[in-house]
Amino acid sequence: GNSVTQMEGPVTLSEEAFLTINCTYTATGYPSLFWYVQYPGEGLQLLLKATKADDKGSNKGFEATYRKETTSFHLEKGSVQVSDSAVYFCALRGSSNTGKLIFGQGTTLQVKP
Amino acid sequence: GAVVSQHPSRVICKSGTSVKIECRSLDFQATTMFWYRQFPKQSLMLMATSNEGSKATYEQGVEKDKFLINHASLTLSTLTVTSAHPEDSSFYICSARGTEAGNQPQHFGDGTRLSIL
User: Fold this and answer.
1) Which of A32, A43, A108 lies nearest to residue B93, judging by beta carbons?
2) Does the beta-carbon distance from B109 to A105 stay under 8 Å?
3) Buried (b) or exposed (e) across A42-60, using 16+ Cβ within 10 A?
4) Alpha-carbon distance A68 to A47, whole Å?
5) pLDDT tens across B36-62, in order?
6) Which chain B residue has its CA at the smallest distance from A9's CA?
7) Long-range contacts of A59-68, Cβ-Cβ distance < 8 Å, separation of 24 or more
8) Which DSSP category does A106 fall into?
9) Do A99 and B106 touch (CB under 8 A)?
10) Distances (CA, A) of B52 to A27, B43, B56, B78, B100
11) Which residues of chain A have pLDDT under 50?
């Protein structure tokens, strides 16, 4: 079945450092891929998405490229801020029409001043 | 952007109480809503998929008589935790997906922290 694997956290960086959070997936067909962010005590917010191979999703300085050849959707940001501290979830939605999301286990990012 | 409102944000109640959580899409119509449960420092576990006007589809291992879901309109779904016990304490999150065709993303509520004493 479909699955998502994220790098284990926590990830601790200094402000303005480069961020990469790895995400790989297993799926049949052509899934859509998402990154969600969860701030403490809150629900999830959609950060970015990509719906087909080679698409690049971007938002708020974050980017991720849908790589079908490596089944990956790594999240990157060139210069993180303290306010980026949160839990990041990679997710996929299969090509069926159920709309179900499969989430990775989440990666906690802590950015220190 | 699309807004999903979840209420209440926090509930503390005694064991044996039934608790209702509401999930509303405020500025769009949602044919499908999803209910998730999240344990501390863990990922989201899908509990059920709620379709307007029909019975919810529950994931394996989720007790449908324990977690009652009603999706009576295109903007409201409710989750009722019946006769709640301490092991039901968790963070419950709903999401909603719009009715438009195409790859509509899910929009999430802010979650409900349920604590059963």
Assistant:
1) A43
2) no
3) bbbbbbbbbbeeebebeee
4) 20
5) 999 887 888 999 999 888 889 999 999
6) B41
7) A62/A35, A64/A23, A64/A33, A64/A35, A66/A33
8) -
9) yes
10) 28, 26, 9, 11, 14
11) none
